Amino acid sequence: MANATFISPDGNRDELSIASGITLMQAAVGHGIRSIVGDCGGSGACATCHVYVEQQFLDKLTPMDSNEQEMLECASSPVKDNSRLSCQIAMHDHLDGITVEVAPTQW
C-alpha cells in the first residue's frame, strides 16, 4: 500500500492508501472523490481524470505515451508541465506520499 493525496479544486484534501497496481483514477473514483470523473473507465480516452503531479514525483512516473499526450491536448483545463492522466498512474511503493492537484475542469 502507498499513500496518495488528492487536492480538489475547492482545496479539499483526501488522503488514500492505495494497493500496488491500482491507478490513482481507480482509487479516487472508488473512494468517491467527485472531482475525478474517469468517464472512460481508465482507458485513457477522455482526459476527465486530469491531474497536476507534485514535481518531486514526476521522474518516478512511467513516461507518458503518445495516447496520453493526445488526450491531454483535449483537456478542459490548462495543460502544464506536470499534467498527467490519473488513469495512467499505477501506484507502487516508490510513489508513496505522492500529491496530485485535480485540474479545475474535467469536462
Automatic annotation (TrEMBL):
Assigned keywords, A-Z: 2Fe-2S, Iron, Iron-sulfur, Metal-binding
GO biological process: P450-containing electron transport chain
Leader sequence residues: none
Cofactor(s) it depends on: [2Fe-2S] cluster
GO MF annotation: an example: 2 iron, 2 sulfur cluster binding
SUPFAM superfamilies documented for this protein: 2Fe-2S ferredoxin-like
2Fe-2S ferredoxin-type domain residues: 2-106
InterPro entries: 2Fe-2S_ferredoxin-like_sf, 2Fe-2S_ferredoxin-type, Adrenodoxin-like, Adrenodoxin_Fe-S_BS, Beta-grasp_dom_sf
Top-rank lineage group of the source organism: Bacteria
Family: Belongs to the adrenodoxin/putidaredoxin family.
Listed name of the protein: Ferredoxin
